[in-house]
Specification:
The protein has 267 residues and is an alpha+beta fold. It has a single domain, classed as Alpha-Beta Complex (Creatine Amidinohydrolase), CATH 3.90.230. Helices cover 29% and strands 24% of the residues. It has five helices and 16 strands. The strands form four sheets. Strands 1, 2, 4, 5 and 16 form a five-stranded antiparallel beta sheet that branches. A five-stranded antiparallel beta sheet has the order 8-7-9-14-15. Strands 3-12-11 form a three-stranded antiparallel beta sheet, with no helix packed on it. A hairpin with a 6-residue loop joins strand 11 and strand 12. Helix 1 runs parallel beside helix 5 and helix 3 packs antiparallel against helix 4. The longest helix has 22 residues. It is globular, with a radius of gyration of 17 Å. The N and C termini lie far apart (37 Å). The relative contact order is 0.20. The structure holds 2-amino-4-trifluoromethylsulfanyl-butyric acid (MF3) and cobalt (II) ion (CO). The site of cobalt (II) ion has 5 residues, from loops. Cobalt (II) ion binds next to loops.
């Protein structure tokens, strides 16, 4: 069942999504070789709580942390840990915030230090595919139009692997609501998009093949071939002419550019 949001509810969701972006921007400042992902998680949780939110992921189906931090071959749902980050790492951070009764959920991928041209292209194309999906996220279209646009750009145009096991989703009072939003599919298929729907669009794109394996920690999803993977996620409110993007990368991108330890010349 799809939960349509009133315009008042949309404004509350915008606040939750805003706090997600601010939290990202806060921890982006800290990313550098030598720091641990557990430290980033602790700072994110403190920032969320001190701004009146609760980390959506913590205790979600038993997930033990505030953030998911997935390094290199980890696709999503990586556990923050005590390993230090190093030059050349590709790090995807996914953050969820519950505030005023609604969730915000957004992910972004950062390259630390010297990143190869092929990985820079993976980052750029994955982010581009998110916006190509968002272009199709208008009332009257169908979920499959979004899915097709993402698959077309990443898999057919660039030969990347589109993860099949994980999908985007409706968002609202629950972190995961209907409908599912796959990153692959047929134009004109799936649920019809209507005003008041809010969906999280989140391409998870592998440099190599699409296949993934589950880590023994019970959560972390990794590429089967060990190659890196990128993940960008926006929350989008469906309207008639143009999608209303509730989350924002503006502060994130500014912080990414300002952090000399991060690669920002990929887009
Ligand atoms: N953004 C992720 C998603 O949409 C949330 C991680 S799920 C959790 O699936 F269990 F880790 F919380
Ligand atoms: Co999500």
């Amino acid at each position: 069942m799809i939960n349509y949001k009133t315009s008042q509810e949309i404004e509350l969701m915008r606040q939750s999504c805003l706090l997600v972006g601010q939290t990202h921007a806060e921890i982006v400042k800290l990313i550098k070789p030598g720091i641990t992902t557990l430290h980033l998680d602790a700072v994110a949780e403190e920032f969320i709580r001190s701004n009146g939110g609760v980390p959506s992921f913590k205790n979600y189906n038993g997930y033990p942390f505030a953030t998911c931090i997935s390094v290199n071959d980890a696709v999503v749902h990586g556990f923050p840990n005590n390993n230090v980050l190093k030059d050349g790492d590709l790090i995807s951070i996914d953050i969820g915030v519950f505030k005023n009764g609604f969730h915000g959920d957004s992910a972004y991928t950062y390259g630390i230090g010297n990143i190869s041209d092929e990985v820079k292209q993976l980052m750029r194309v994955t982010k581009e595919s998110l916006y190509k999906g968002i272009e199709k996220a208008v009332a009257g279209n169908r979920i499959g139009d979004i899915s097709y646009a993402i698959q077309e750009h990443t898999e057919r145009k660039h030969g990347y692997g589109v993860v099949r096991e994980l999908v985007g989703h409706g968002l609202g009072e629950e972190l995961h609501e209907d409908p599912q939003v796959p990153n692959y599919g047929k134009r004109g298929s799936g649920a019809k998009l209507k005003e008041g729907m809010v969906i999280a669009i989140e391409p998870m794109i592998n440099l190599g093949k699409k296949d993934v394996i589950n880590d023994t920690d019970g959560w972390t999803v990794r590429t089967r071939d060990g190659k890196p993977s990128a993940h960008y996620e926006h929350d989008v409110h469906i309207r008639k002419d143009k999608a209303d993007i509730l989350s924002s990368f503006t502060a994130i991108e500014a912080a990414e550019k300002a952090n000399e330890n991060l690669c920002s010349d990929y887009y």
